[in-house]
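re: ur question from yesterday

yeah so i grabbed the chain u mentioned. its 221 aa long if i counted rite. heres the sequnce exactly as i have it in my notes:
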Amino acid sequence: MVMEFFRGGSQSELVEIEATLVRMLRDGHLVFTTATDALFGGGKSKETRREVRMTDKGINEAQQDVRRALLVHAAVNQAELPLVLQYASIVKDAERIGDYSKNLYDLVKFGANFEGAPDQAELERYRDAVANLILEAANVFDAKDAVAAQRLIGKANGFLDDYDDHVKAAYRSTGETSDAVARALYFRFLKRTTAHVMNVLTSLVQPLDRLDYYDEAKEDR
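ran it thru and got these structure tokens back, copy pasting raw so excuse formatting
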């Protein structure tokens, strides 16, 4: 596994950092599920808004904790700088899952509601796929399972073109403008969430210079 190559003798700080990253992903799954449940009939409420905001705030605070720990670790273990840079990159990706979940909940605040829509089953299918992806990524990262990470990356990669197709379809829609906008943003946010999860997983199978390329056009990845 790529990360193991850079490990030195001091492990306790890294173990704590890794545990925090796993917790961020699991909290990301929670806030994503909460936000999208509201889109499929849950609706907006003070309780849901509070849960989304507080969970995302916890993810942000965890990111700051990881950054501080990485600074200390880098100062003491300069030979592990590549690993520190790797974690500094993926903690950003883990944090962004919470941000896009907030964006999804914003759709609810703007009036979007997919419950009872003709395409509800398809919309829910993609929602469930992304929710499962986040949770699986947390488990795979926790286990440091490079084989499972590669499998999951391949699975997630298959969704990216689908998201683009749905955005294009929404753009070309002749129906209600509000419905088209809600779907275009929905699939855009799913795509960005998926890309950030894939970036986390690449840390198990790719060197530092190959991270963060699932945001690129397919032919440039």
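noticed a couple things. Confidence is low (pLDDT under 50) at residues 4-9. also The chain has one domain: 9-220.
anyway ttyl
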